[in-house]
Structure formats: structure tokens, C-alpha cells
Amino acid sequence: MKFLITVFWILCLVQYLGDTCWASDEKRESEFADGINKTLAMGKAVWLESEGNKFLGLYTETEKLTSKGTVIILHDMGGHPNQRQLIYGLRVYLPEHNWATLALQMPLREIGASIEEYYGLFPEAAARIQAGISYAKSNDAENVVVVGYGLGGLMGMYALSESAADILALVTISLSVPTTENKAAKTLDFIKKIKVPLLDIYGALDVADVVGSARGRRLAAKENTGYRQIKINDEGHAYLHDEGLLVKRVYSWLGVTAAASELAPNPNPNPNPNSPTQ
């Protein structure tokens, strides 16, 4: 009997730890930041704060006097805000098309950690995303878009599934649908809650979980009239063949989405600024 009770409490502890919030690996973050600061040639390093902790962001302004808004970029598992492939391309090329960018350092686990071990960092990731949105708004960005790659996309989904009122749109690149009971990684449930325009990009040769769940993601988003899914042929998870094509897909869709937003009727029209709101 005592043995069974002991086993029961061990199982409860395992379940508890599976949903516990963990702190990011500050040493890894510091090493990435040091390396980035020594070689940074485009944009500027900014230090943001969430829940009392500072983290690195790379802010790159547009090349024109006016801007369509700011794109917040979230890297894949174990990466950093200046990572090649893909993150660097998004960060430096979107400003050429009138979108400022803010690439964020997302929380990290130790080298070799599994994706399941990252789920406990999602609340911290959500706080960082909100800090990034606040920074963009403080720089007069009328439109804010979140672009997440790989695990960064899932972190974005987690952060914005309950409230995405502060953003214009969400873009996910190689979004997976993990087989897990962890509530932090219920991709399809998150997609059903997203009401803002959502662009779902993946490679035809992407990892099996991303390719195999494409139809499930479409079905989950069927009530979102702003949802679009794009499959890029001959590309795998790293998008090594034509990174520029992916970037073009993103800024083209963002341009159309921003234009549609500007044309959308005001849900609370008040033509007379001196009259009380009805």
C-alpha cells in the first residue's frame, strides 16, 4: 500500500513539473548577446524588460520617412534574434519594404533540452512578447505584427490566443502541432481562438509534424476569414534554397492585410467629434 501511495505522489510531481514555469538560461542568453553586439551591423540593440528581467531585442528602422508598422520576430527553439538562416533575413529585409522590425531573444533552455522542456518557458515568452508590443507602440507603430518561426510561432500562438487586440496580424512559419497533453502547446486550440488575420507558411519538405498537420491547421482556422496557408515547394525547415521568397511572401501578405485594415469600417463610427458616443 505504501508503495502505491509513493508511486501516486511521484506521478503527481511529474505532472506538476510538466506544467511548471521555468526560468530562461541567462548564461546562454548572455553569450548570444555578447556575440551579437560584437558583430551587429544592421539595426540597434535594445534592452527590454519583462517581469523584472532584461532581455535583448534588435530594432531595425525602415528606410522611408513613413512606416507601415513594426514586425516583432520570434526565433526557433534554441536560437537568437540575429540567427541565420531566416531570422536575419526577416529582420533586415522587411525594413526595405516599409516595416520596422524588432527581433526578440526568446527564453532558452540548456543545450540539448527537448521541446517538451521548453513548454515551461511559455509564460515568460508571453511576457516578452507583450514587452515587445509595448516597445513598438512606444515608437509610434500603429500596426504591430508578430512573426514566429518554429517554436517561436507556437510561443506567439500561446501568448496571443487569449488576447490579440494589440496586433494587426500573426504570421507563423513552420508551425508544429505537438502530440502532448501540456496545455501550453495545444496548437489547434490556439488557432481556433485567433481572430486576427493569420498567415500559416510551411515548406513542402518541412519536418513531418509540420507537413502532416497542415490540414488540421486549416480546419482549426476555418472560422477565421483572415486565415491563409502557403506551402513553399522544395523548401525544408531551414528554407535554405530561397530565403528571399519566404520574406517576399510575408511582406506581400502584410501589405494586403494592412491595406484591408485601413479600408475596414470603423466599428464605432462617430462623425461628429463634439457629439457624445452612442
Description:
With 278 residues, this protein is an alpha/beta fold. It has one domain: Alpha/Beta hydrolase fold, catalytic domain (Rossmann fold), CATH 3.40.50.1820. Strand 5, helix 5 and strand 6 form a beta-alpha-beta unit. Helix 4 packs across helix 5. The chain is globular and about 45 Å long.
Kindly report how far apart the N and C termini lie. 68 Å
Count of the domains: 1
Overall mean pLDDT score? 88
Strand order of the largest sheet: 1-2-4-3-5-6-7-8
CATH topology: Rossmann fold
Supply the CATH superfamily name: Alpha/Beta hydrolase fold, catalytic domain
Percent helix, as a range, is: 25-40%
Strands, total number: 8
What sequence of helices (H) and strands (E) makes up the elements?
A: HHEEEHEHEHEHEHHEH
| CATH architectural arrangement | 3-Layer(aba) Sandwich
Structural class: alpha/beta
User: What coarse outline follows from CA principal-axis ratios?
Assistant: globular
Uncertain stretches: 1-19, 267-278
Please give the largest β-sheet.
8 strands, mixed
Q: Determine and state the CATH class.
A: Alpha Beta
* Percent of sequence in beta strands: 15-25%
- How many helical stretches? 9
Radius of gyration, Cα only, in angstroms? 20 Å
Comma- or semicolon-separated keywords:
278 residues, alpha/beta, Rossmann fold, eight-stranded mixed beta sheet, disordered C terminus
